[in-house]
Amino acid sequence: MVIQARLQQIKPARRRASPRRKISLESSLQATGDPLTIHDFSSTGMLIETASKLPLLGGIEIDLPEAGNTRAVVVWNSGRYYGCEFKVSLPKAVVSAALLRSQPKPPEVSSQPRPIVAMRANVDETEALPAFEAVTTPDEEKASLSVRLRVILGSSIILWALIIAAVWSVIRLVR
């Protein structure tokens, strides 16, 4: 039996129904009053961090600026981080209000790689996937365009010279 299928990769940018905005907004769970931090936010969902244990696919209620008590469903979690989807899509005014009330993060000055936690569905609460991303500082100096072009041109000339020399040596050995 032959089954024909067409596989299509979805670009990560198109996975979400609406664009996410990075924020840092403090709030609390309405049921328990436990504090939480919203790390990213859109009209369809959010990423929260809390010490509370939230059940997967369980409903939560959270107080949002300009929206009041808003219902969401926990769709995945990794340790203290929970991905939530709103039951009803929020208007743009609520997203804008959350952005305006977000606390700005101080700029990072370290040029050392910092650990980040990769998050995915079906990860045990205690399991974290360590990864590293490079953090560059704005005062990092780059060579001028003419210097970079000269390095590229010189490197390509040297590479072609080595290729021609290797081919010439092989031809001489064969004869």
Describe the structure.
By secondary structure, the chain is an alpha+beta fold. Among the domains are: 15-101, Thrombin, subunit H; 142-175. Helices cover 23% and strands 30% of the residues. The protein has 2 helices and 8 strands. It has helices spanning 92-101, 145-174; strands spanning 21-28, 35-41, 45-49, 59-64, 68-78, 81-86, 114-118, 129-133. The strands form 2 sheets. A 6-stranded antiparallel sheet has the order 1-2-3-6-5-4. A hairpin with a 6-residue loop joins strand 1 (21-28) and strand 2 (35-41). The longest helix is centred in the C-terminal third of the chain and has 30 residues, at 145-174. The radius of gyration is 26 Å and the shape is elongated. It starts with 20 loop residues before the first strand and ends with a helix. The model is unreliable at 117-137 (pLDDT under 50).
